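Notes from the 1:1 (GR / supervisor)

We went over the backlog. Supervisor wanted to see one worked example end to end before approving the batch request, so GR pasted a single chain during the call. The sequence is below; no edits were made to it. Supervisor asked that the structure be written out right there so they could see what the output format looks like.
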Amino acid sequence: MALKRSRRIAVDLFCGAGGLSEGLRQAGFETRLGLDIDPRALATYSQNHPEAETALADISTVSGKQLLRLANIADVDLLAGGPSCQGFSTHGKRIEDDPRNFLFKEFVRVVDEVRPKFFLMENVKGLLVYSKGRFKNLIEDAFDRIGYRVASKTLCAADFGVPQLRHRVVFIGTRLSRAELSFPSGTHSAERSHGVEMSQYVTVEDAIGDLPRLMSGRKNTRMEYVSAPTSEFQHYVREGAESAVTLHQARGLSDQAAKIAKFVGQGEGLRAVPVAHLPQRFKKMRRISNGALRRDCTTLYYRLHPARPAYTITCYYTNVASGPFLHPWEDRCLSHREAARLMSFPDHYQFVAPSFPRQIGNAVPPLMAAAIGRHILGLLDMAELPRRRAA
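Structure output shown during the call:
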């Protein structure tokens, strides 16, 4: 009879509210430590991951030895994290010399000092192509110098059952000579693939259709679900949750946003609004010099389509003027719980006030993290299989 081995050990740097750790937990990892510089996000992490130690610290001030001591471990199977590289984000101004763009160097340093078997680094997709791939090459060269093979790929969260078209670049690296470097295959697609057993993308309605309506600005802290789970995703998010919905709160629209929203149908944005009803600043944005409609700003005031996944949920989901955050059926922004669901957080996952949007919008979608985590577990097992047979 085969002996049951202990769970693989992970450490989560830049852990935020814990989306990555939640996914790794679902995959089968035991995360022993979460580190972050944001005390509010770390409070949320601690509440939802009581089995893990937490460290409120600037990564640049912490050594690998200190991390191992804080986690009470001698070695690490997986060192994971998403060092901020917001200067590359396609949702903001790209600033090459933004100091956050170089936090990856601290991640590399810790990998060198801790020497995990594998590492996982997640980041914005703009990093992969910015400056013709210069920063991607810098990262890969840095890992190569410390003896780690590395591979990178852009993954879409919707391909792994997340109801959101969120694209992120993922770096996977290892020091194990026998380990393969590869990425998980998607389990979902926009359309069913011929000859391949894949589910269709999880839609907005699949994700939030069982949540009660709020009627613009309603502030109830606990509300009843409106139905039993009607989709596989709803079964997933409601497992282990209470009978009442929490954090289902959303603010109403400004007078200007309310006027615009009346013209916006499901799957439409600012460009659906007649020019005569646009505020002056948006009228200037509608056409370029040759008279053609501009192709940017198409997701401003965008109303989510219930039969499609959402676009990327950012920490601005409470501001419909900033992106695709109009509720599909009501004239309001998304609630915190709706945004958390579109990120694939289970309903039992609680966020500690304040700064809910920052915690949710900056997280790694747990279902995407779980798929990557399961894949890395397989790579670890295969890499160590010959040694186990010899033993």
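Supervisor's comment: The longest strand covers residues 29-36.
Batch request approved.
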